[in-house]
Amino acid sequence: MTDPTRSRLALVSVDWRTLSQGFKDALPMVLGVAPFGMIVGVSIVGIGLTAVDATLMSALVVAGAAQLAATALLGSGASVLTILLTVAVINLRHVMYSASLSPWLKRYGLGGRLLMSFVMVDQTYAMSMLRFENEGPDYARREYLLGVGLTMWANWVATTAIGALLGARLPATWQLDFTIPLVFLALLVPQIRSRPALFAALTGAGLALALAALPYNLGLIVGALGGIVAGTVAERALGRAASGVKA
User: What values do phi and psi take at 211, rounded to 5?
Assistant: First the structure.
């Protein structure tokens, strides 16, 4: 008969070797993300917040694109509701991340799943999926994901703090707002790998530009939602067309 106490201890035990492997696998990505974190830090202090504010934002939010969007909206005087809606739309992809990871992680308790979700970023998701697909059912997936995720989190907080400290010392006449759209472009372009993605990007950008005069930057939200709808419709249309050709 299985000892319940021993089973509970097994559930909370930590596989340090796998945790360390996740840390090592994440190291090559640290340098690539570092400039992004510094830009976020510079941008946040550029709208009048402090380096402490910037560091706390990165430590608690852990979402680069969402933080840049929120920073731009804060600087323009947008309402809290607009900022929250924009951040929610930008982070909708995490719903898909959760759905695809759930079969691998459902055996872990609520506390472990919450911690894994907190440190989940694009790089952590991608590396975890690649690793999980090649490992057996007993692999310590929680430890691997946390090894990657905590490394990315620490790097994000540190580089944001560095950027904020550097930005606080730059002359006020230096306008750094142009870095925000540049970073978004750098994030967007590599993701356009298909016609539906291109259609979604063009539709979203067109709507955002056409509705730029709306109050509280609501054009950004409309553009994001319009891009999602356009991409979904285009993907379904192409799927039906391909099925018709095969028939």
Answer: -105, 20
Q: For the chain, what is the mean pLDDT?
A: 81
Which among 70, 42, 50 has a CA at the least distance from the CA of 162?
A: 42
Q: What is the DSSP string of 39-98?
A: HHHHHHHHTT--HHHHHHHHHHH--HHHHHHHHHHHHTT--HHHHHHHHHHHTTHHHHHH
Token pair for 132: 């999980």
In sequence order, the 6+-apart residues with CB closer than 8 A to the CB of 105 are 112, 113, 116, 141, 142, 145
- Per-residue pLDDT tens digits for 56-96: 999 999 988 889 889 988 888 888 888 888 888 888 878 88
Exposed e or buried b per residue across 28-53, where buried means at least 16 C-beta atoms within 10 angstroms of its C-beta: ebbeebbebbbbbbbbbbbeebebee
HSE-CB of 223 using CA atoms within 13 angstroms: 19
pLDDT tens-digit series, residues 13-28: 888 999 999 999 999 8
Q: Is 235 helix (H, G, I), strand (E, B) or coil?
A: helix
pLDDT higher than 60, residue 12? no
Structure tokens at 71: 């920073």
**Whether the predicted model's global pTM rises above the 0.70 cut:** no
**Residues 161 and 59 sit within 8 Å (Cβ to Cβ):** no
